[in-house]
Amino acid sequence: MKRTKTMELGVGLFMLAGILGLVFLGLRVSGLTLSAPSETFRLEANFSNIGGLRPRARVTMAGVTVGRVEAIELDTEWYDARVVLSLNSDLEGQLSRDTTAAILTAGLLGEQYIGLSVGGDPDVLQDGDTIRDTQSALVLEELIQQFISNMVSN
Amino acid sequence: MQSKLKQGTAHIARLGRKGCDAMEALGRAGVFLAQSAVGIPSREGWGLWLKQVHFVGVLSLAIVLVSGLFIGMVLALQGYTILVDFGAEQALGQMVALSLLRELAPVVAALLFAGRAGSALTAEIGLMKATEQLTSMEMIGVDPLRRVVAPRLWAGFVALPILTVGFSVVGIWGGYLVGVEWLGVFEGSYWGNMQASVSFINDIGNGMIKSMVFAVVVTWIAVFQGYDLIPTSEGISRATTRTVVYSSLAVLGLDFVLTAVMFGGL
Question: ipTM of the assembly?
């Protein structure tokens, strides 16, 4: 009977270790937070070229992450990319109507993200509005092409 | 000429017989799994199940954790020497965590599990069959599928995912030891890049699904090989070998299929 007791204890600890391990993986490795997912609102932005932007990419403002890219789809009316952003609801009614969105790159070869910067318009963007002033991704190949054609014409 | 032709047809017939045998064994294995997996441990079965979890899980912990530690350390070392050429050693944590969670932990833990626990399960059940313990159980009205097989199956289903979690945790810690403590990667970027790139559902969740599939496959193969062997000493040794070979092949093959479905956008 004593043997089964220690065995039961061992199995119990084993299971507990498994659950704790999963919690560690969740909190420390994947960076889940226990707080409820914060309220968000959506904005849209059209870019003529998104480069390597992916869904779930960061949206930042002055370097601070304020949201992420929800979805990317092709707008068949203008044949450009429509990017849906979900932003912290703290910013709802705070961003002016002439806010600009630019696709930036972390480092030379790093991941691409969206940087927002506010303008001075007294009107503000509401849930579901579209950001008008956008700046497309910097595509390295196009830059090189421009550089070479400049060199040739000189 | 005539005899040559006869020999040729005999070869073809043997090939067909082999194929039929393989299909038959697969069918038997399927029926066997269905019959024994429904035997969810009853009250007395609970104790049997506990004992098996202790054997296949708790006692496998040492080998799995030590392997995890070393694999994490090697990953960090190799990753560092490659990444440092591109000045991207901050991405070390991301590389270690993703390769462990998505691939290495489920696969290596399943291979170790097949070698450490699967072969033992086959040999144990095989010896029970060879010494006619299974037949005696049937004689006294105890269903061996419920009494012997079901607790072992369910123990394996539960134990391997837990072992996989342990493998990942220890591996990531091993990567931290080598990368941060020894090679001097900045600690904040090790954890920060990891947290930015690892998704709980897509990476950890899919890794756990893989591990559960492997648990079912490896335990199923091990227990079935033990139950279905030819009850001689040679039969037991062959079945034990087959368990390890088949489960390793099944794990590696299934891993490709699962990866293609989960991450390959299939």
Answer: 0.76
